[in-house]
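Record filed below.
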Amino acid sequence: MGFAVTIHPNPLEGFGPIMTAARIEDPALPTVLLYGHGDTVRGLDDQWRPGLLPWTVTEEGDRWYGRGTADNKGQHAINLAALEAVLAERGGKLGFNVKLLLEMAEERGSRGLQEFADLHKETLAADVLIASDGPRVEPGLPTIATGNRGIFQFDLVLKLREGGVHSGHWGGLTTDPAIRLTHGLSAIMDPRGRILVRDWLPRNGVPAEVRAALAGCPVGAGEGEASATIDADWGEPGLTPAEKIYGWNGFIVLAMISGQPENPMNAVAPSARATCHIRYTADTDPLTFEASLRKHLDEQGFADIAIENAGVRMAAARTAPNHPWVLWAQDSMQRTLDARVQVIPNSSGGLPGDVFADQLGLPMVWVPHSYNGCKQHGPDEHLLMGPARQGMLAFAGLWWDLGEGGTPKR
């Protein structure tokens, strides 16, 4: 398609390379930065149902199965195919400039991308980021996300002795670390999912512009798809489901261990550990999370529980939902698709949005082509054909309208 392509080593040793490409027709024209990632999580080959393989694309009904179909190869492939179609229709000219960034370490926290952006700011300079990753709010509802929630991860550790002690002799006499750690976790979140460390949360509640953007926003995975349920009485009281995942912070215990679950011993375990993370919005400061938790645990009588390995795994970032580029993209998509397009202030998951918004100063327009039931990161990952084709149509319209003029002023 006439791009000048360069493959760069990752600035951090041990992480995948980064590709940049540029197609510049005229520096005076608007420039769009397109993003995707070519790495995936592990295949989990033995967990896919019979007839499906992670590294072979299988067409079945209205779905394409395979690792990366939804996250993320299928999504950025759609956008490039739409660009190719518009380029052919316009006789080899677009009427705007395109730059492309493809990384190979997103599933490892986009390690090296911040350092790369610092070294290549001119290479990545643009007017707007328009890209695709993550799910729509519902399979049939075209969506624009203007940011992403961040991830702050930490371990809670209680180590009481060097080894286990006989459960008959010592049970009921010596502290059980699993029980105590469980009570420590209950001091962080109540039995119905309300976060009790209130300093972790947006100080003034859901911001007005976020609440306005989410008014009437549905949340769904697709009929028969989600293995989890949306429980109305779980999480922060008074918030809608959309506000809970797009406008609020969540606390999750990823894993817990005490003793040897694979081979239980008749012993009081010596220690217990829980790996936890906070999915947080741009309205909170993750640099305060560890100190707030330490203060809270101490006040609740859990000074013996240590916090280890705490830190940001992926930063939160947001472009205002009413930013001119967001409204321009929403209008373009609604005219092309003749359908409502839902704007959300951030996706529910993590993306390297801070690189684009904070380091490069770009407004972000994320247009996801997947849905919550796509089973990304697990067995049987798939992309729905209907939303994929609708996404290709939407991007063909975006690329076409970019060349027609009338884009937001620089």
